[in-house]
Design goal:
This protein has helices spanning 2-8, 10-38, 42-45, 49-52, 55-82. It is flat and about 60 Å long. It has 5 helices and no strands. With 114 residues, the chain is mainly alpha-helical.
């Protein structure tokens, strides 16, 4: 809340919070109407979403989640084992020696003068 007040100011923060609260109520009522039109009781469906999702979709979702999680998980595990930062990028480590960036010297600095 303090961050919002600092970034947006009192008036904008009030508008922001009222908008979020109002839209939450509006979309909640819209979902209720969709349920009513479909003839579904929200009370009867709470906690029973697993019955609506086919088994093949469950397995497909699990495989998709696993496939997008492999790279971050292996980086995290390697970082824990090797005690390094998983987000650290080692630039030019895969390049041959002659393609690596050379250090900047006075003769290579562009002064803007022609």
């Amino acid at each position: 809340m303090t961050v919002l007040l600092g970034l947006l100011g009192k008036r904008a923060t009030a508008i922001y919070l009222v908008t979020i609260a109002s839209l939450a109520v509006v979309f909640g009522l819209a979902v209720d109407q969709i349920y009513a039109l479909a003839g579904i009781s929200a009370r009867a469906t709470m906690g029973q979403a697993a019955e609506f999702v086919p088994l093949s979709a469950k397995y497909l979702g699990a495989l998709l989640l696993l496939s997008i999680s492999i790279k971050p998980l292996t980086a995290w595990i390697k970082a824990k084992v090797m005690k390094t930062d998983p987000h650290e990028h080692h630039a030019h480590t895969d390049l041959p020696e002659d393609e690596k960036q050379k250090p900047v010297t006075d003769s290579t600095i562009c002064t803007g003068a022609t």
